[in-house]
Specification:
By secondary structure, this protein is of the alpha/beta class. It contains twelve helices and eleven strands.
C-alpha cells in the first residue's frame, strides 16, 4: 500500500492507495469522533466499517443526484442522526458521492470532517482528491460548492475489479489528461502505480494552489490546469442530450482542446496526433456525439467557472505547456468543434 501526503499545512492529509486500503478507514477518522454518517449509493456495493456508531445515507444515481435538494436531504438526515461538529461524514462511492458528501460536510454545522473512500477509477485518480466539492444547477455543472479538504482519502484498487467496463473506461478518460500534466508512460504502468502517479500529480497542483487562486489572480497556471479537457466535457454533460459518461466527455474535450490550440497557432499537427494517440490507447472516442448542437455547446462553455475575465476561456496546450487562455474567438471555437463532428 502506498501512502501519499497532500501537504496543506494544518489541513494536510494522507491518501492511501492499494488493494484492501478500505480496511484502514478507521485509522483515518478524526480522534474523538463518535458517530459517522456514511453517504453512498445503492449501486456502489462497498461496505465499510468506521469503528464508530454509523448510519448509512443513500443518495440517488447519476448527475441528477448532484443537486441542492440532495444536500438538504443529507443535512436534515445528519441533524436527525444528531451528528455533531466533532463527528465525521464518510463518502463511499464515485465522483457524485464524494462531491455531494463533501459539500454536505462543508456546510453542515459550517464544517464537519469528511473522509472519502473512492470506489471508481475516476474517483481515485481525480474526483476524491483535492477538496473541491459541489453540485449542479440547470445552468451548469458544479456551479455551487465549496473547497473543503477531507481528513483522508482511500483509493482501494481491489474494488475496481467489480466496476462495469464502461465505468472503468470513463476513469481512463480522466486518467488520460494526466499524460499532458507531466505523468509519463501511464498506459504501461500497473494499475496501482498508475493510480498513485495520478494522485501524486494532483497532490502537487493542489498543494501549490488549494483554492485555484492563481488563476483568479490572472496567472497562467496553477490548479485550474487540472481542468484540461473539462470545459467542453462539462458543456456536453450540462446540455444533457448525449449518452456520455464524465470520462468519455473529458476524452472528447482533450481532443477538442488540441484542435483549438492548433487553430490558435499554439501547437502543430504532431502534438494533436499525440493527443489522439493517448485517447485512442484507452479505447475512447474522440469525436462529438452525432447531432450535436455546436451553438448550444458554445453558449454553455461561456458560463464555465474559468471564464473570470469575460469571453470564452480554456486551458490549452502550447509552447510552454498547458496555460489558461482567455478571450478565445468564438469563430475558432466553432471551427474546432466542427472538426470533431
Amino acid at each position: 500500500m502506498k501512502r501519499i501526503s497532500l501537504e496543506l499545512g494544518e489541513r494536510s492529509y494522507p491518501v492511501l492507495v492499494g488493494p484492501g486500503a478500505r480496511h484502514e478507514l478507521a485509522s483515518l477518522l478524526p480522534r474523538g469522533s463518535k458517530k459517522s454518517a456514511v453517504v453512498t449509493q445503492a449501486g456502489v456495493g462497498v461496505e465499510v466499517d468506521t469503528g464508530r456508531e454509523q448510519r448509512v445515507f443513500m443518495i440517488g444515481e447519476g448527475e441528477e443526484a448532484k443537486s441542492l435538494s440532495t444536500v438538504e436531504q443529507l443535512c436534515r438526515g445528519f441533524a436527525e442522526f444528531r451528528l455533531t461538529r466533532a463527528d465525521v461524514v464518510v463518502g463511499v462511492g464515485g465522483g457524485v458521492v464524494t462531491d455531494v458528501a463533501g459539500f454536505a460536510a462543508a456546510v453542515y454545522h459550517r464544517g464537519v470532517a469528511v473522509v472519502h473512500v473512492a470506489t471508481t477509477l475516476l474517483g481515485q485518480v481525480d474526483a476524491a482528491i483535492g477538496g473541491k466539492t459541489g453540485v449542479n444547477l440547470p445552468e451548469g455543472k458544479n456551479l455551487v460548492g465549496a473547497f473543503w479538504q477531507p481528513a483522508g482519502v482511500i483509493c482501494d484498487t481491489e474494488v475496481l475489479s467489480t466496476l462495469p467496463p464502461r465505468e472503468y473506461k470513463s476513469g481512463l478518460g480522466e486518467m488520460a489528461k494526466y499524460a499532458f500534466l507531466g505523468v509519463a508512460d501511464l498506459a504501461e504502468l500497473p494499475l496501482e502505480e498508475a493510480v498513485a502517479r495520478c494522485v501524486e500529480c494532483k497532490a502537487r497542483f493542489v498543494s501549490a494552489d488549494p483554492h485555484e487562486l492563481s488563476d483568479l489572480a490572472g496567472g497562467k497556471g496553477g490548479r485550474v490546469l487540472l481542468n484540461y479537457g473539462h470545459t467542453l466535457a462539462h458543456a456536453l454533460e450540462t446540455v444533457g442530450h448525449y449518452d456520455l459518461r464524465h470520462g468519455e466527455a473529458v476524452a472528447v474535450g482533450l481532443i477538442f482542446a488540441a484542435h483549438l490550440a492548433r487553430r490558435l497557432g499554439r501547437v502543430g499537427d504532431e502534438r494533436v496526433g499525440e493527443h489522439q494517440a493517448v485517447v485512442s490507447s484507452y479505447g475512447l472516442a474522440s469525436r462529438l456525439p452525432a447531432g450535436v448542437n455546436v451553438g448550444e455547446l458554445v453558449d454553455v462553455m461561456g458560463r464555465d467557472k474559468k471564464a473570470t475575465g469575460g469571453g470564452l476561456t480554456f486551458v490549452l496546450d502550447g509552447p510552454r505547456g498547458l496555460e489558461v487562455v482567455r478571450s478565445v474567438p468564438v469563430d475558432d471555437v466553432m471551427a474546432a468543434l466542427s472538426e470533431l463532428q
